[in-house]
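It is worth pausing here to work through a concrete case rather than discussing structure prediction in the abstract. The textbook approach is simple: state the sequence, then state the predicted structure, then interpret. We follow exactly that order.
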Amino acid sequence: MTMRERLQHALKEAMRARAADRLSTLRLINAAIKDREIAARGEGGGEGPVIDDAAILAILGRMVKQRQESARAYEEGGRLELAEKELAEIRVIDEFLPRRLDAAETGAAIDAAITETGATSIRAMGKVMAMLKAKHAGQMDFGAVGPMVRDRLA
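Step two, the predicted structure:
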């Protein structure tokens, strides 16, 4: 089952269950995917490429990051009810993301990517990062992985 099919199925189930908050979040996800499709059509001209699972995972990852930042800002501002709403949306989005790799698994994935690409210097960092993004989309925070790759290649 593709990500799009899973999202559509979850949307229908939320409608049947009359789960308003879950339904709202799922509609936000679909809107973000639709926006990305429209942007892709504009870039490629014509019908454009269909958004694949990797692109959907990237969209979901960005949505989680945005909500984490918003929740943190709401907590600092004393708006706990809004922070809780953002955290509830994160929980719904997380259902569709693959399991996050822990520190040991991330390190092993980095080492495997370095070995597989034959990287020996910092100049090959782009190749290593590209391989990690292709194999582990949605499973690791690439903002934190970048410095780890740089340290191993330095």
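Step three, interpretation. Residues 3-94 form a domain with the Hypothetical Protein Yqey; Chain: A; domain1 fold (CATH 1.10.1510.10). The chain has two domains: 3-94, 103-153.
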